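2024-03-11 09:14:02 DEBUG pipeline.ingest accepted 1 chain
2024-03-11 09:14:02 DEBUG pipeline.ingest length=460
2024-03-11 09:14:03 DEBUG pipeline.predict start
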Amino acid sequence: MGNTADEFLVAAEEKAFDTDHRRVINYNIGKYDAAVERGLSRLINLDTAKKKGHVIKWKMMETLDKMLPEFEANFQKRGGKVIWANDAEEANREILNIMQKAGAKTVVKSKSMVTEEIELNEFLEHHHIESLETDLGEYIVQLLGQKPYHIVTPAMHLSKEDIAKLFHERFGTPPDATPEQLTQKARELLRDKYVQADVGITGANFLIADTGSIAISENEGNARLSTSFPKIHIAIVGIEKIIPSMADLDLFWPMLATHGTGQNLTVYNTILSGPRQTGEPDGPEEMYVILLDNGRTNLLAQKEQRQGLYCIRCGACLNACPIYKNIGGHSYDTTYPGPIGSIITPHMKGMEDFKHLSYASSLCGKCSEVCPVKIDIHKMLLLNRRDAVNEGLVPNKERWGWSFWKKGMLKRKTMDYFSGKTKNWMLRTFFKKTWGHYREMPEVADKSFAKQWQDKHSGE
């Protein structure tokens, strides 16, 4: 195991036995479950909607080389500029170029997992540019110097008391401030920033090919403010976010909202098709869309596993996963935690360092069951495990262990050759510190069932 895997095991164990963490997460996910159940009950034919979404995303991934240039051509027609970025370094460099050319010094940023993926805030800070998160959850974790805990709800691991304490220490609000008072304080602090910022940076939930537009879903209005006031708007979007037509939002917007938060639709749904046009009252003077690869084409090249790119980032699989609910989002040490992160990260960031995530699963299949675009997540986890073995990335100890087990299991004689005493010694010696770390080790009978049967019926 590499360092990443070792760190994961330590962090996971620590969180699994942190009762306060468990209390907060169970409470927050419980509220989510109730809301989503209500939301899903409003959909007349959920399975058909999921199948339709799956087929549209399948078609997009199979024709990505045609759909992305179509988006680019249509976006450019309205004065937008498209930049293709192979990796995080290239994306960050392009953003810095735009900002330096404009003499920009301040950025307001709406919630975007892709900007987390390329570590944009750290990069801009390094170049003395202030980058402020404007989504309330993201703003809270930025104040704490943390990474988002969840794809949809970045501060899910914090209770309202934790946030009240943070605001009291930072801004002098009452230590027992209500969520409404805390939100009001954040609004006061952030409002001026939108007006003063030189650049607004967002992600996008969807790229719309036929109109050359981006679609953004949000609940707080901060993305609209980030794209309306600053003179420059930069949207950074993964290449897999493409959909064929604006008409497809009729399916994807309700499916994203319902699976993400249980709403029919999120509060604000915005379609942006380039910079401010003549006669329009607001909007940026320049608009850029950065199309980010950053390992996505590695996954696209895997025919059996490319459906990992169908993901619409609703977060449903995280909330359903018994492992995520016990070890939390930060333990994964990836931008995309939980089941979806476990299947895409090894391809985007390297199988050797991240293969362990595909083993962090009970394979219960709940993740596949709740996915709004029917990604066969638990099957992908198994395929990643297979690939790790085929690429020779498993330790010798593990390889020898399975080889020995296979030999024994294929021949009844071999299994019966060892007495129960020997088997118990092997369990204690080789498994007590790993498999038996928090379990009572099983006691193997002196004789196998076959041997007992043979002895019992030998005189008949």
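2024-03-11 09:14:41 DEBUG pipeline.report The mean pLDDT is 94.
2024-03-11 09:14:41 DEBUG pipeline.predict end
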